[in-house]
């Protein structure tokens, strides 16, 4: 009989705990971010050697210095942007950086667009 009381007490406690938990409201959706920032611009010389650019968020400029041995006409940069944002040209797409290249970052909600000018120098 004593064990039965423990099980009943345990059952009542579980019911109380489960009924006190709140669920998110049905239909509650977190709005998409308005951020459209380029957060990293990196060029790899090989698997272990890479060069990170300096990003000026105010001026929307990116400046990268690479060694003379890297061909500026066939660079495939790794680009990271704000979560959910989209960058064009895409990360990993081959680019010719003989002249500055513009990258457009669009926020997940589509309301914010930032254009970054990327310059690569030796």
Throw out a few tags for this protein.
1 helix, alpha+beta, DUF5018 domain-containing protein, 122 residues, five-stranded mixed β-sheet, 33% strand, elongated, Immunoglobulin-like, single chain
Characterise this structure:
This protein is α+β, with helices and mostly antiparallel strands and 122 residues long. The chain has a domain at 38-121: Immunoglobulin-like, CATH 2.60.40.2340. It has 1 helix and 8 strands; from the N terminus they run αββββββββ. It has one helix at 2-20; strands spanning 38-44, 50-52, 54-56, 61-65, 78-81, 86-88, 101-106, 113-121. A hairpin with a 5-residue loop joins β1 (38-44) and β2. The longest helix is centred in the first third of the chain and has 19 residues, at 2-20. The mean pLDDT is 88.
Shape: elongated
Helix run count: 1
Radius of gyration: 26 Å
Largest sheet data: 5 strands, mixed
Fraction of helical residues: 10-25%
CATH class of the domain at 38-121: Mainly Beta
Low-pLDDT residue intervals, each spanning 5 or more residues:
none
- Topology as H/E string? HEEEEEEEE
The average pLDDT value, as a whole number, equals 88
Structural class: alpha+beta
Euclidean distance between termini CA atoms: 85 Å
Number of strands: 8
Spatial strand order of the main sheet: 3-4-8-7-6
Hey, roughly how much beta strand do the residues contain?
A: 25-35%
CATH topology type of the domain at 38-121? Immunoglobulin-like
**What CATH architecture of the domain at 38-121 would you give?**
Sandwich
Protein name: DUF5018 domain-containing protein
Keywords: Signal
Signal peptide: 1-24
Organism: Bacteroides intestinalis
């Amino acid at each position: 009989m004593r064990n039965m009381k423990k099980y009943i007490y345990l059952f009542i406690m579980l019911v109380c705990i489960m009924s006190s938990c709140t669920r998110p409201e049905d239909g509650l959706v977190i709005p998409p971010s308005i951020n459209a920032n380029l957060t990293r611009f990196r060029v790899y010389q090989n698997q272990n050697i890479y060069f990170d650019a300096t990003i000026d968020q105010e001026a929307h400029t990116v400046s990268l210095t690479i060694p003379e041995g890297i061909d500026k006409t066939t660079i495939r940069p790794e680009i990271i942007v704000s979560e959910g944002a989209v960058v064009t040209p895409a990360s990993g797409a081959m680019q010719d950086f003989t002249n500055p290249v513009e990258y457009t970052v669009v926020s997940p909600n589509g309301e914010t667009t930032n254009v970054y000018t990327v310059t690569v120098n030796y």
